[in-house]
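User: Just a sanity check before I run the rest of the batch. Below are the structure tokens for the first item. I only need the designed sequence back.
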């Protein structure tokens, strides 16, 4: 059974940084395109960042451009989200997800990790 396990969330002050990790198991990780999403209370889940299976292609939501960086280490079956200049509005549960086709639906999801940014 495929598992995606996020870690690295926590409480941080505005302007601070966090690095989220998502470790996969029982997934041919290097062949999957990976993404980070988030969901704040009372809001719909939204796309944050994505990275291609080769790692050469990345995409970001406008609200995180220049502040967040997605990366992956295929040898460790792990995808990362480096978050800097955090704002209170970044508070949400962050999820990683995997999809085989770059234009398909995300097939596998993690359980999420809470990020709380205090003002």
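Assistant: Here's the designed sequence for the first item:
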């Amino acid at each position: 059974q495929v598992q995606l396990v996020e870690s690295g969330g926590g409480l941080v002050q505005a302007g601070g940084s966090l690095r989220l990790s998502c470790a996969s198991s029982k997934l041919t990780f290097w062949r999957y395109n990976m993404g980070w999403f988030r969901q704040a209370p009372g809001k719909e889940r939204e796309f944050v960042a994505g990275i291609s299976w080769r790692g050469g292609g990345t995409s970001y939501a406008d609200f995180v451009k220049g502040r967040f960086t997605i990366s992956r280490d295929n040898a460790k079956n792990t995808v990362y989200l480096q978050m800097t200049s955090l704002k209170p509005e970044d508070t949400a549960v962050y999820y990683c997800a995997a999809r085989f086709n770059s234009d398909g639906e995300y097939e596998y999801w993690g359980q999420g990790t809470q990020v709380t940014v205090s003002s």
